[in-house]
Design brief:
- The complex is a heterodimer of chains A (about 325) and B (about 400).
- By secondary structure, chain A is of the alpha+beta class.
- Chain A has helices spanning about 5-25, 110-125, 130-135, 140-150, 150-160, 175-185, 210-215; strands at about 30-35, 45-50, 55-60, 70-75, 85, 90-95, 105, 190-195, 225-230, 235-245, 250-260, 265, 270-275, 280-285, 290-300, 305-315.
- The two termini of chain A are about 25 Å apart.
- With about 400 residues, chain B is mostly helical.
- Chain B has helices at about 5-10, 25-35, 40-60, 90-105, 110-115, 120-140, 140-160, 190-205, 210, 220-230, 230-235, 240-265, 285-310, 315-335, 340-355, 360-365, 375-390, 395-400, and strands at about 15, 20, 165-170, 180, 240.
- In chain B, the strands form two sheets. In chain B, strands 3-4-5 form a three-stranded antiparallel β-sheet. A two-stranded antiparallel sheet of chain B has the order 1-2.
- In chain B, β1 and β2 form a beta hairpin.
- In chain B, α7 packs antiparallel against α12.
- The chains are: A alpha+beta (about 325), B mainly alpha (about 400).
- Chains A and B meet through α1, α3 and α4 of A and α1, α5, α6, α7 and α13 of B.
């Protein structure tokens, strides 16, 4: 029976969090974690559910003051608060991503229940937003925040799945029709570009992602021609995995993406380039409309590009391999 | 450029204030200190305090709030942010204490969590300063926040359509953004005074929708304001700064709105209509403020939901929505000794109890037939009472 005394309700959760942090036990629903994969973003992850097979339903959580219709607000006085759980961006993740040493807190059971309920409502399209939440939904600051932080975090967490690899694997031809297409296409001089198809549906549920073992495509070194990346119509991000070839000497340089008119549409700041280093990029779909692109590495000191690859981006006509990742009851 | 990128992309977190130079990662070091559970002494706090003050002042300047009354951020009893010739006291110091609590007390767990995966969390503290100010501005200056939101959305819409171009400054459209009607033409630039002469005609058409249309319906007024932007080109200007546009627009809206807000309360109309000082002080504990804000939001939401489901004609619903948004603003803008949630009921009662000549002006501004106002106030009063009854017990449970 719930007690009316907030302190009594806080203590068990806080004590549980401390005990669990010390014990280093496995991640469980109700836990908050930070992930190395999303360390560049101001987010934690709230685990809401576990399903057979061990995968965990997690939602990005952040301390921004905006709470829209799909979010669950955890007040400052509640365990783990103040936080906003971005329930529209829930995703099933491997438990291996959650390092016991990076457990950062615990949510109250009623918060977890509320968030799971919210995910189900979103799944069923049965969300009845309050007028104030709708005001937040329409707020440009809120939209910017969701796009730039939790949506990017979701994309990065998906990309960080343990199964991801840059080397060809036996499963390469097993199940994903586009994989074979990509394999035949050529790309790259000094960069290997592996492209993951992703979508982050900002409009509504169902949440879905394609497991990395089925969708990571590795394109061979020093092949010729161009690649075509088919992006689902709902995608708001495209994930690119760039691998710096061993032939490129260590130096400071930057990555650039150019459109068909050779205009730079995206670039990094100058950064140390290390041979065989890997870089994940989540680029907004709005920056990469359908068309032809070049991805290259340019030395910071100037001069010719060190490596350049061509890729075409097209909206996919259908979504092969789409799976329903709706949480269980 | 986004908030996150601009903060997380900072290369040099070193801050300078007066003659002091602060060590790098001063905020990070403070969180480490707090995590260690060691007592804080003056020596360890001084650099943190100076760095936080400098960061807060910088953000106030960036948001154009430095010249505004501290009341716009819920700091009452001061006309300016810094008292001349005095250090360690004043509105900025009050805000500083609240900012410290917001970041290093309420959000300490989250900061410590981030320290586990990154060596430097100063960027996160800067981000929290922005959140802190944004939240307070929305709470205490809903009028200014709403005008900013609508104008920014209208400008971004024009940029997306290709009729406006960012010439310099933040591409996300902030005060430092300079905009032009073509990517090349940079002059003549409209001055603030020239824009100020133009915007009253815009507000003749846009008010009250500019401040009362919210949620999905906000897009209507965003489009209408976006259609006004080419007026600047027709006046012969090739470029303008967002700051010089938002300033006069806000001042004109405040001038008109404050006039009806105060008239409806039977008070004198301020002559300057803009950044007038405020003097009443309401002293409550922070916890009490949190509960009041929570109750206020809940009541506003409850009445809005009630209006959505009310069995009435669409025109009447529209009038009720407009009037409720007005009462909501009236209650938020006031900083008197009555809490905002109580002010809602007080304002509705006063409006029903008395026949004021100012009602005519109110009806004109809100574009509601004068004779409908008493009945509309009556309906809102009933809805509010029902919501208040439903809120008993609910808020306390929701808090935890």
């Amino acid at each position: 029976m719930p007690t009316d005394d907030p302190r009594e309700r806080l203590l068990p959760s806080a004590a549980r969090a401390r005990a669990r942090a010390l014990s280093g036990g496995p991640p469980e629903p109700g836990d908050l974690f930070v992930l190395r994969a999303t360390a560049d973003l101001p987010v934690e992850w709230a685990i809401l559910d576990r399903r057979p097979g061990g995968e965990l339903l997690a939602v990005p959580a952040d301390a921004s003051p905006f709470a829209g219709s799909a979010d669950v607000e955890v007040p400052a006085t509640a365990p783990g608060g103040p936080l906003c759980l971005r329930c529209r961006l829930g995703v099933w993740l491997s438990p291996g991503l959650f390092e016991p040493g990076l457990r950062s807190g615990t949510l109250a059971p009623e918060t977890v229940a509320e968030a799971r309920q919210q995910v189900r409502r979103l799944e069923a399209g049965a969300l009845e937003p309050s007028p104030l939440a709708e005001e937040i939904d329409a707020d440009s600051e809120y939209r910017d925040w969701i796009r730039e932080v939790p949506e990017r975090a979701r994309a990065l967490a998906l990309a960080a799945r343990p199964a991801a690899s840059r080397k060809p694997h036996p499963w390469f031809g097993a199940g994903y029709p586009l994989a074979a297409t990509f394999a035949l296409l050529a790309i790259g001089l000094g960069i290997w570009v592996a492209m993951l198809r992703h979508e982050v549906d900002r409009r509504s549920m169902p949440i879905f992602d394609v497991p990395s073992r089925n969708n990571s495509i590795v394109l061979g070194e020093r092949t010729r021609g161009r690649s075509v990346l088919e992006v689902p119509p709902e995608a708001s991000y495209v994930l690119l995995f760039l691998f710096v070839d061993s032939a490129i000497p260590p130096q400071v340089g930057r990555f650039e993406i150019l459109n068909a008119k050779r205009r730079i549409v995206w670039h990094t700041d100058p950064m140390p380039l290390t041979p065989e280093s890997e870089h994940w990029l989540a680029v907004e779909r709005s920056r990469l409309p359908d068309g032809e692109y070049s991805i290259r590495i340019v030395p910071a000191a100037g001069g010719h590009s060190l490596a350049e690859s061509k890729v075409g981006i097209e909206t996919a006509k259908e979504l092969p391999g789409k799976r329903d990742f709706s949480p269980g009851p | 450029m986004s908030a996150v990128r601009s903060f997380w992309g900072r290369k040099k977190p070193t801050l300078r204030e007066d003659s002091h130079t602060f060590t790098e990662h001063v905020f990070t070091e403070h969180v480490r200190l707090l995590a260690g559970g060691r007592p804080l002494d003056e020596g360890s706090l001084a650099p943190l305090w100076s760095a936080l003050r400098a960061a807060l002042r910088g953000e106030l300047l960036r948001r154009g709030l430095w010249e505004s009354p501290p009341a716009y951020l819920g700091i009452y009893g001061w006309d300016t942010w810094e008292a001349p010739g005095e250090t360690g006291q004043g509105a900025l110091e009050e805000l500083l204490f609240e900012c410290y609590s917001y970041i290093f007390v309420q959000r300490l767990r989250g900061l410590q969590a981030q320290l586990a995966v990154k060596p430097n969390i100063d960027g996160l503290v800067f981000l929290n300063i922005r959140h802190f100010l944004h939240e307070r501005q929305r709470e205490h200056d809903p009028l200014g926040s709403q005008v900013f939101e609508v104008l920014r959305s209208a400008v971004r819409l024009a940029i997306a359509e290709g009729t406006l171009h960012v010439l310099s400054g933040d591409e996300g459209v902030r005060n430092d953004t300079v905009l032009g009607f073509s990517p090349e033409a940079r002059s003549p630039v409209a001055s603030r005074e020239e824009i100020a002469a133009l915007v009253p005609s815009w507000n003749d058409d846009l008010l009250p929708d500019l401040v009362t249309l919210r949620g999905q319906r906000q897009e209507e007024v965003v489009r209408r304001l976006r259609e006004r932007l080419p007026d600047l080109r027709r006046e012969g200007f090739a470029a303008f700064s967002f700051k010089d546009l938002i300033g006069p627009l806000k001042v004109d809206v405040r001038k008109r709105w404050v006039a009806i807000l105060d008239q409806s309360q039977g008070e004198a109309v301020p002559q300057d209509g803009g950044e007038e000082g405020r003097s009443r002080v309401r002293v409550v504990s922070p916890d009490q403020q949190v509960e009041e804000r929570q109750l206020f939001r809940w009541l506003v939401d409850c009445v809005l939901t009630g209006l959505k489901n009310l069995d009435t004609g669409e025109k009447t619903r529209e009038y009720l929505m407009t009037l409720w948004q007005f009462v909501r603003l009236q209650a938020s803008e006031g900083e008197g000794i009555v809490a905002p949630d109580s002010r809602l009921g007080q304002l509705l009662r006063e409006a029903r109890d008395e026949e004021r000549p100012s009602m005519r002006r109110l009806a004109e501004q809100l574009r509601i037939p004068r004779e409908r106002l008493p009945g509309l106030y009556e309906t809102l009063g009933s809805l509010l009472e029902r919501c208040r009854a439903a809120s008993v017990g609910r808020i306390a449970v929701r808090s935890f």
